[in-house]
Task: structure prediction
Amino acid sequence: MIKAEDVYRIGIINKPHGVHGELLFTFDDDIFDRVEADYIICMMDGILVPFFFESYRFRSDTTALIKLEGIDTEQQAKRMTNVEVFFPKDHAEELEDNELTWNYFVGFLINDVNKGDIGKVTDVDDSTINTLFVVDYKGTEILIPAQEDFIVDLDREKRVITMQIPEGLLDLN
Result:
């Protein structure tokens, strides 16, 4: 069984394309093309289900047309509309730290060198030029800049990001 903590979100399937089961996929992370992986994971009725690629081709920097095994008709493809797509974190382990996208860090613990454990990253907000970690800080959602300059250490095995968060930033939230 695939667990939520073993995957991270890379995009969403938008809609069917054509009548042979091809799907329009909008992605935040093209990791499926950068590592040796022949499948993606989709959230189907609350369960994470692997789907193997038959093929895919890029349409732009953020969209691709994908064909998945077992999805061969327009009706089958329609069931995939608005389905979230995930990727296994263990496949991303072979990438260097500077090749990872910020979404990979959802579920990591943020630790500040001065204040200790801050909380877990629950989401990443990249809607503005400054990417932000959304962190559960004592039951409250706070935003911490996802800046490489603030990251002191990254422990992928323990899933901890040690940061030197600027003085007063936590007080602003």
In short: Residues 102-172 form a domain with the SH3 type barrels. fold (CATH 2.30.30.240). The chain has a mean pLDDT of 90. The helical segments are 31-34, 74-78, 89-92, 169-172.
